Amino acid sequence: MSSDFQTKVYVFLERLWLVAAILGIGCVVYFLIIKDNDSALFFFGFFILSGLLYILRKRQRVKYQKHANDKNRQYEPGKK
Question: Which of 18, 38, 40, 70 qualifies as a FRET site for 2, CA 20 to 30 Å off?
Fold first, then answer.
């Protein structure tokens, strides 16, 4: 699997979780407006979970990009 393709997959999954978090917070607001607190609580949990997974995927992508950039650099004698 190429480095470029893998980066695109990480970005796609990161954005997918971001959209899920935005959708979750939108549902929380909607259910609070119609005074359905049980559903609002469920979607608040969904928002928290998808927000955490977004942060996890973002960190994973940043670490992978840093690793890929370090790997692509050529070895220079005398430098660590």
Answer: 18
